[in-house]
Design brief:
Helix content: 40-55%
Number of helices: 15
Radius of gyration: 21 Å
Order of helices and strands: HHEHHEHEHHHHHHEHEHEEHH
Structural class: alpha/beta
Number of strands: 7
Length: 337
């Protein structure tokens, strides 16, 4: 009897040690500096997100939920990751729909112009998620080698080498991953280039191919299945060095029109939004906090006008948005002084 008890105690202690070790070594980053939109999703109570924005750094540097909250009481959330591939976008939405029932999902179609190739971006997409059928399916789609697929699924073969880079944030959950709403504050200022008049011709389209068209259709199918309104976006960036992207966006825009989906291209809307290409960018492809404030305020007005969204300000259930706004305003004071 005593041997049985000692054996059970040993098994429990071993399981606790393994669990704690995994927690320390686990991947905690979807877009840098230990910040993770996925961890923020997991820290958010069920059915609290009204509007979800999905995409690459173009999105998590451009949409600030604190502005949506302060000005409109909209509980927005940015489910982003660096160089987010199309497969990650789709499976992140599946993960989000497990606990949330947003009225609107805005998918940035910049993902149509890139391919997921860098290991770091694949790690950010797959390892930050909790292990589930959804994460396994994502791994199988973005990792071709069967051995590497197994390593991603088991996690340990990849993360065990992280002991060389262990930091304080591996032991203590950073506050931002609890109350943050997925936005990445950027305070630098660098000039960018506005879109030229030649790129306004939306009749020139690119052949996206079967896989990309199927991805667009899968988003439509998911929106119908989960009951959210789908909006496509393109966040402002320097298109002069990426002219082929414009033809891709034209094709996505035509698809959106055929499927009665709103298409908001902020390169086209830049003047209406008030984007200053000399002041509102932290580099030529990412908005800073001042540019994000303009885009977010514009988005909030559009959403309030066309979608029935409740003003949640004053509701204690949404305290994470209050904390996020408090953090943003404190950072704003420090960086404007």
């Amino acid at each position: 009897m005593k041997k049985w008890i000692r054996g059970l105690a040993f098994a429990v202690i071993l399981a606790l040690l393994i669990g704690r070790t995994y927690q320390i070594l686990s991947w905690k980053d979807t877009y840098g500096d230990y910040r993770s939109s996925i961890q923020q999703l997991y820290h958010t109570g069920n059915d609290l997100m009204d509007v979800v924005f999905v995409g690459t750094s173009h999105v998590f540097d451009a949409v600030n939920p604190a502005v949506l909250w302060e000005e409109y009481g909209i509980s927005g959330f940015v489910l982003g990751s660096s160089a987010q591939g199309r497969e990650i976008t789709y499976h992140y939405l599946i993960e989000m729909c497990k606990t949330q029932s947003p009225k609107v999902v805005c998918v940035d179609v910049y993902g149509l112009t890139i391919e997921l190739t860098a290991n770091a971006d694949i790690y950010r997409g797959t390892l930050a998620m909790r292990l589930s059928l959804n994460s396994i399916q994502l791994t199988q789609e973005v990792v071709e080698n069967k051995t590497e697929q197994l390593q991603h699924i088991l996690r340990w073969p990849i993360i065990h080498t992280r002991y060389r880079e262990i930091a304080k944030q591996d032991f203590v959950e950073i506050e931002y991953n609890v109350f943050g709403r997925g936005y990445s504050l950027q305070w630098g200022r660098t000039s960018s280039e506005p879109m030229s008049e030649e790129l306004l011709d939306d009749t020139v389209q690119a052949d996206l191919g079967e896989e990309k068209m199927e991805w667009l259709q899968s988003l439509v199918d998911l929106s119908e299945q989960e009951g959210f309104e789908l909006i496509f976006t393109v966040m402002p960036y320097d298109l002069e060095n990426d002219e082929s992207a414009w033809e891709i966006y034209n094709t996505a825009k035509a698809f959106a029109k055929e499927n009665d989906i709103a298409f908001l291209d902020f390169n086209v809307l830049a003047d209406e939004v008030g984007i200053d290409y000399e002041q509102d960018f932290c580099d030529d492809t990412h908005l800073n906090a001042w540019g994000a404030q303009k885009v977010s305020s514009y988005l909030g007005a559009i959403l309030k006008e066309h979608v029935e969204l409740e003003d949640h300000r004053g509701d204690d259930a949404y305290y994470l948005w209050d904390l996020d706004l408090e953090y943003y305003l404190s950072e704003l004071v420090k960086n404007e002084s």
